[in-house]
Structure formats: structure tokens, C-alpha cells
Amino acid sequence: MTQSVNDDHQPIAIEKGSLLQRVRSEWLILAQLGIPVLIAQLAQIANGVIDTLMAGRAGAADLTGVAIGNSLWMPIFLFVIGVLNAQQPLISGFKGSRNFQRIMPTAWHGIYFALFAAFVSILILNQFAPLLTLLQLDAKPSAITMGYLFAFSWGLPAVLLIISLRGLTDGLGHTRIIMVFTLISVAINTPLNYIFIFGKFGMPVMGGIGCGWATTIANWISLMALLVYLHRAKAFRGYHLWSHRIWLQKQYVLELLRLGLPIGFTIFVEAIMFSVIALLLAPLGSVVIAGHQIALNMVSVLFMVPLSLGMALTLRISFLIGAGQRESAGLVARSSIFLALAIALGFALLLMASKEFIADFYTTDTAVLEVAVHLLWFGALFQIADVLQVNCISALRGFKDTRVPMHIMLFSFWGIGVPLGYILTFKNWLLPAMGAAGFWIGLIAGLSHAAFWLLIRLWWMSNNNRP
User: Fold this and answer.
1) Where are the domains of the chain?
2) pLDDT tens digit string along 382-409?
3) How far apart are CA 171 and CA 317, in angstroms?
4) Which of 51, 69, 370, 379 is least buried, going by the fewest C-beta atoms within 10 A?
5) pLDDT tens column, 165-217
């Protein structure tokens, strides 16, 4: 392999000059890596919003079926993504250390895991009918849910392979590639939704089930296009994606799982936590649930910015450690805390200043509006803790530290956040029961606990110059 470690995508760090110059240089690199990631994340959100809006046009049962289907596949999907996300710091580190011969074995073992996970996920997603019966879901939305999951599941091999190949492209610093192919997927999915949902151009009317088939076809087309690109692109010719196939080796399997399973489990328990909170709020009525969802949705959209910064941090820190620039990696980690804090405070002020405007954008129902405005105030405080914790945990992944952060997050979510939230929401033990706001306070407390200990962990790791 002849690839150079000193290129435009992941340059080596400047180790001379003032502290301000070095920090400015690193923040520019983080922006170059993170902005394409942000656009890709927003495109994914747009895809989900389009599916929801178009399914809603087909009817309430179709909207319900697609919404329930999404809630069932999402936690499984996020767990697999978390495991595959271990590829980015591994490959980025190998590039930094010029250990090019380890890159393709890591990439291929990500591909193998993606195929295995897709097979298992297809089996699981097509076995949810008894659960829907247990939940006493009406027959029509239940049938739509199962039809949607069946259609969607056959696109899982494609989308998980794309995510696996993202480990290679992002790991090598080419974050714009997945951005482009995600936008292509959105461009394909939208017209296919129209055709399949409403039965255009001779197709039968499928309703919400058509969303699943549209997503599946869009994913397979995007995968084929990505494979062609990787085969022909000059930047990837030296890696010989297909001619240098690697068979399963225990060393690479364990390496991927050792780093990836804690990431996947952390993301999974967080996703489950929000689902559990939504279920626990059900007795408070549809108005409270709607207001809660508005606040949560707005916070989730804003979260894409620090999440993208975090993914860039993981890439940059792992690269610098691989390149033997651990002191620079520590500088990036520590300085990113101040960048994250600035983002968090900016978003908190934005939510506080415009909570009425934001709520008005979502609903005209006065009762829902009142709940949403009230909860968005807590959402502003939530932003600060959430942004700091995702910044710290992403930086720690760059140091290949995933097990300790997993335990911190698990206790913060389920030892503090959910129990405290339940008590404050429904009980008079600490304060008079305060409804949905109690869960938001519980979440803020849990995430603040996580942010505190992750910050200490990151500060220690970034100041420890031992390899």
C-alpha cells in the first residue's frame, strides 16, 4: 500500500505554534469531518419524516402501522449500528499508524457482522405478530405493521452493508461519501413512497406497507451505487476491496466485538429508555404524550449537531493516537469540551427564547401547546447535559475506551434517570407529582451524572500520554 497518512482528509496535527493556532487548526479539521456527517444525519431524519407524512396521507391506520413498525425495528437497528461504529476508530487508527494491512481485514469483518446481523434481524422482525396481539392493537394497523416490517426487513442487508462500508470510508477520513449516498437514498425513497403508497404507474395501492418496500429498494440501489463507486474511485483502488477478500479470523472478530458491543449496548439501552418513558406516560393522556413528543422531537433534531461533532471527534482522536500524536489527541479532546459547551449553551438559549414559536410550528391545539412549551424549558436544560455527555463519550471512543463509559451510561439511565423520573412524575415522595416534567428532570439528572463522570474519565485519558 502506498497511501499517505498526510492528506487532506486526515492531516497530521500541527505540533508547533501557539495553543490558539493548534486548537483552531484542529477545530477546522473537525468541521471538515463533521459537517458531511451532520448532513447525512439530517437526511436520515428527513427520510423518516417523509415516510411519516406520506403514510399519514394514506390514513390513520397506515400512519399507526408505520409508527409502530419503526418503534420495533429501531432499537435492534441502533444496537447493530453501535457495534459497527467500532470500525471507524479502528480503521482511522490503523491509517494514522500507517498500518494499512490491518484496514481491509477490519472492513471485511464489519461486512461479515453486518450480514449476520441482517439475517438475525430479518428473523426477529417477522416474529412480532404475537406481541401486537398482546398489545391489543386493532387488526388493520396490526396487519399494516407486520406488512411494513416484512417489506422493510428485506432491505436490512443493504442498509447494514452501507453502514459497514461507512466504517471504511469514514475511517479513512472520506466522510462526504456517505453524505452523498444518503442524499441519493432520500431522492430515490420519496418518489417510490408516492408510487407504492398510493398505487401510481400501475402499482397496487399498498398504503403504509409501501413505505417498507420503497425504503428497501432505495437501500439496495444506494448500496449498488456505493459499491461501484468504491470499486472505481481512485482513493480506494489501493485497498482492493474485492480482490483482497479476508476470511473470518478470530482476532478481528474479537477486536470488533470488544470495542463495538459496549457501544451497541449503550445506544440500545438509551433507545429502550425513551420507549419505556413514552409507555409510562400513557396513563397521563394523549395531550401530555403529544406535548412530550414535540419537546423530544425538537431536542432530537438539535442533537444531530453535537452527535456529528462527536463522530468527527472519534475519527480524529483515533487517527492522532495511531499516528503517535497522543499529546495532540489529548488537546483535541480537552478543547472539544469547550466547543461542546458553547454549542450546548447556544441551543439552550435558543430553546428558551423560542419555545412558543417551536410549539406553534408543531400544533395548533391549545392544550398540547401549553404542555410542549412547559417541557421545552426542561429540554433547554437537557441540552447542556446531553451535549456534554455525547462529546465526552465520543472522544473516549477515539481512545478506544468503551467499556467504562457503558457502565457509567447504564447506571445514569436506569439507576438515576428512569427511577427518579418515575417518582417525580407519579409519586409525592420527594415533591408533589409533577407529570411529564418529572421524567425530564429525571433525564437531566441522569445525563448530568453521566456527563460529570465521563468528563473526569476523558480528562484523565487525555492527560495520560502513555500509549
Assistant:
1) 31-265, 281-467
2) 989 999 999 999 999 999 999 999 999 9
3) 11
4) 370
5) 999 999 998 999 999 999 999 899 999 989 998 888 888 888 888 988 999 99
